[in-house]
């Protein structure tokens, strides 16, 4: 554990600390960000109205659109000269969302990321290979500063150049790998092609995040790379990686509550949901100065697990993110998450963890086609075997989703590999 005192704080102390920090953040935002002042006034609320943690529900939500509309620095709460770092989203659908950090914010980020790496028992003995993208994306540098804070030996490979990643992993004795789960799968696949056995490596753990993944994918990565694979969670609007992470119990991700206050709401009504109920995750930052965020709607679907964890950490856990309200597919009125299909495919075990969901509209009816890559040895079997397999997968998926789907088995290596976040959905319905 990186910081046992903070990570095992009593619930009472944590609640007190959260309230004190919430009050101070709300005041800071109100006094320094015109956007928040205006929204609080519209909602008829003043900073002094926040007397308990429950009062948070009187504060308005903040959305990604709010961030875009205040591009680039409109939501910063300090003058630019106090900002030492800026990150931004890729902005595929218009202007990017921009976030800024003071020197103290970078310190907080390093601390929560050090705790996150501490989940895998990282120490100065470890060699950490960071294959998240470096640059405006928060992944690479976020993990980097946390690993350096612990005193790990850091290899900042960034994404891509897969053969070199594997060579460095072997030659430098990498013990902990950090990247997206889909890239971890791809690394394992290329290693197998190159004839590099996991036994030649010193890898013992991996911290994988930036996209939703399933238990089946965890088993796949753990057996193919011979490691403990842990899920980490974060988003640049809140701080970057390091908002929450799984401990070795692997039963939910501890949210660092002394820095981030979580809520789960009904995405349709905005009403808070009780612990255990699934809904949209909402976060309020409690210590950030440069870019405080109040009730940010993440669009990520999860739930909170308040029960104590066997690891001894007292911070509340969240369930692994199942999908997003905006990459959730609605097929004939049914909510479909790519991770549900992934789980079915991996539990059957005949195929590679590479798949694509293609949605079309035929005669005004939504049609979901699941493209699945079969493994090399199964593909060599006769066609009849493939048809049976297709049928089997189709039945299993239909049993889970409750709607009819088409399954199409494709040759090995047909589906495009990703070095970052995997693209799982092709939705053609809007094109007609
Ligand atoms: Zn735990």
UniProtKB/TrEMBL annotation:
Swiss-Prot/TrEMBL catalytic activity: 2-phenylacetate + ATP + CoA = phenylacetyl-CoA + AMP + diphosphate
EC number from the UniProt entry: 6.2.1.30
Entry annotated with the keyword Ligase: yes
Protein name as catalogued: Phenylacetate-coenzyme A ligase
Main EC class the enzyme belongs to: ligase
Annotated ranges, domain AMP-dependent synthetase/ligase: 83-283
Keyword Nucleotide-binding: yes
Summary of the function given for this chain in its UniProt record: Catalyzes the activation of phenylacetic acid (PA) to phenylacetyl-CoA (PA-CoA).
Keywords: Ligase, Nucleotide-binding
Pathway in which the depicted protein is active: Aromatic compound metabolism; phenylacetate degradation
GO MF term list: nucleotide binding; phenylacetate-CoA ligase activity
SUPFAM superfamilies on file: Acetyl-CoA synthetase-like (SSF56801)
Family, similarity comment: Belongs to the phenylacetyl-CoA ligase family.
Subunit structure, interactors included: Monomer.
Lineage: Bacteria, Bacillati, Bacillota, Clostridia, Thermoanaerobacterales
Gene Ontology biological process: phenylacetate catabolic process
Organism: Ammonifex degensii (strain DSM 10501 / KC4)
Residues in AMP-dependent ligase C-terminal domain copies: 333-429
Pfam families: AMP-binding (PF00501), AMP-binding_C_2 (PF14535)
